[in-house]
Amino acid sequence: MAAYAAHPDGKASGPLASAIDKVKWRILPLFVIMFIANYIDRVNIGFVRSHLATDLGIGSAAFGLGAGLFFIGYAIFEVPSNMLLQKFGAKAWLTRIMLTWGVVATSMAFVHNETSFYILRFLLGVAEAGFFPGVVYYFTQWLPNSERGKAMAVFLSGSAIASILSGPISGALLQIEGGGLHGWQWMFIIEGLASVLLCFVVWRRLDSTPQDARWLSDDERHSLTTIIAHEQRERQASKPVHVSSWSLLKDPQILLFCFIYFAIQLTIYGATFWLPSIIKKMGHFNDFQVGLFNSIPWIISIVAMYIFASLAARFRHQQAWVAATLIIAAAGMFASTTGGPVFAFVAICFAGIGFKAASSLFWPIPQAYLDARIAAAVIALVNSIGNLGGFFAPATFGYLEQKTGSIQGGLYALAVASVIAAGLVFLARTSGRKAA
To answer: Which PROSITE patterns did the record assign (predicted)?
Structure first.
């Protein structure tokens, strides 16, 4: 503890500082790579929408529903998956999650009708359930409070990096033909098997707890576990422990966290799944060119995520920063309805600054509020309910496009949801309640 508290600016020194540096360099790059693979396997269907329509007759409404069913499976199995993570340990469970999602992602190559499309998208959600909140919980066991916000920003940059890479990679893979398979099938096979192969690296590099980390010295291990245990005792002293998922839902703060994250995810996945279609309306582009254009908003957003995370760490008003980024997202989504395809693309680039930064800035709020004994369950609950935005956005957009030929109404709804969330975030607390 002394090493951590020695500086008035809150910066660690001595064994604790070296332990934190080692954790960051060993664990963060691995999680970023895992998240890149995870995100690509989750959203790559956005690049094959026209191919599924041509080869399998899957229309806009069916595509939107299938894209969204992923999040239903994800939501149902999110909390059980995180409970099992605590039972079997992060190393075994996170490796299992990655293996199963890689297998299902590869199987997407053999979709042959709407039913098989629905089933495999649902199973992909089941397979991936627990990964994101598992990593967030992992940070609570490995990093002190002051370091988690920056770690989350780095980790979440994986989704932005994946969005940058997925366009050109998927676009290039879509041009492969041979072996009796179409390009979209080769895309699913190659990207899915990449996740399977990465499992072996995860198994070798990941440790479940700091006590298992032989790459830390005894002093480093002691300093790290001491500060984390101290922060946990402070949370336990200020907040009672809930005993069931139903009791968690009675906490208005947890419900508030769920809604705010739902609004953020609603906008993210609305843009993610429909951006390639917007780009195609800008001109006559092939799949690779569409992929290159698709990377632009995410390149901008990854820079914005880091800038906002640094500002939030320096000027400590987390709710205000989340609200500001949500207003930026709302303005961009609303502006995308006021012009042609090119202007819409530029507006979504602006919106991306907001909704991706909001996603990373949000998580330190519930992390600071929660007792670590229920953190895994609550993080899973917030993430699973919030991620239902990933179901409603594509399903609604697909229905609107098939019925009206436009997604303008959906874009208005995204802007309104972001504005409401920006107001409600000021009601979110960043410290635990006093025990009764």
So the answer is: MFS
